[in-house]
Design a protein that fits this description.
Keywords: Signal. The strands form two sheets. The protein has a 17-stranded mixed sheet that branches. Strands 13-14 form a two-stranded antiparallel sheet. Helix content is 8%, strand content 48%. It is built from two helices and 19 strands. A hairpin with a 2-residue loop joins strand 17 and strand 18. The chain starts with 10 loop residues before the first helix and ends with a strand. It is globular and about 45 Å long. With 253 residues, the protein is mainly β. The longest helix is centred in the first third of the chain and has 13 residues.
Length: 253
């Protein structure tokens, strides 16, 4: 099994936005950073352990279910707090349909970036081939998020709720020709036209109640994905607890 990476062309724009955030304290609080995302995680290897496929990806860590057509995916997580240095780094946390071996994505989630030592938190959705869209709502480290994506035919509803701050964003889109062939709950190192970007030190991201088609994601013998570049492990994914709870731990940018 393999997945493809499709890269956006937003590098220069995102760099300008992050530069502005770094020099403006007010903007750093109010304005989300641009998200630069690939369509899928490039899964380079996998092997079976106890019915779970253990895989390696250059930009994904988490779980991806395949083997059927998906009509829903959902999960909850706590927005990680990033530890920033002088480097500009990126990380995102999301649920999605498609992207693993397909040429489309339907995703929504949160972002935790570092710009010249400053943490920048935001939220977004994406329906490829359109660029990702940032929500304007405030996001803070420690916020509790719940998210659901549902599909009825060619209609998609993407819902992201910050239960800590009390806001919900619901986006409805209609798009035909999508394969609906995978469901994922992922921590990601976003990509630009230059490739996978440096990963933010997010510590540990905790995901709970991860489901696909209304069932625990573990019922689909999903891929358990660790993020690695060559011999460097960038993030590791824990075993599933109860078929639907797991964590992703940062190792290296």
């Amino acid at each position: 099994m393999s997945a493809t990476i499709r890269l956006t062309a937003a590098t220069a724009v995102a760099a300008a936005v992050l530069s502005a955030l770094a020099t403006s304290p007010a903007a750093a609080v109010a304005a989300p950073a641009l998200r630069m995302t690939p369509v899928g995680g490039h899964i380079s290897s996998h092997h079976l352990v106890g019915g779970i496929r253990n895989s390696t990806s250059s930009n994904w860590a988490g779980y991806a279910a395949t083997g059927t057509t998906f009509t829903s995916v959902s999960a909850s997580w706590v927005q990680p707090a990033v530890s920033c240095t002088s480097k500009t780094t990126y990380s995102s946390f999301w649920i999605g349909i498609d992207g693993d071996g397909s040429n489309s994505v339907e995703q929504t989630g949160t972002e935790a970036d570092c710009s010249s030592g400053r943490a920048v938190y935001s939220s977004w959705y994406e329906m490829y081939p359109a660029y990702p869209v940032n929500y304007s709502n405030a996001v803070s480290a420690g916020d509790h998020f719940t998210s659901t994506i549902t599909r009825s035919g060619t209609s998609y509803t993407l819902t992201l709720t910050d239960t800590t701050k009390g806001w919900t964003k619901t986006t409805k889109k209609t798009q035909s020709g999508l394969s609906n062939a995978s469901a994922e709950v992922i921590a990601e190192a976003p990509s630009s036209s230059s490739g996978v970007l440096p990963l933010s030190n997010f510590g540990t991201a905790n995901f709970t109640n991860a489901t696909a088609n209304g069932q625990a994601i573990g019922n689909y013998s999903p891929d358990k994905i660790d993020m690695a570049s060559g011999s460097t492990t960038k993030a590791t994914t824990s075993a599933l607890s109860g078929g639907e709870n797991f964590s992703v731990a940062f190792n290296h940018s």
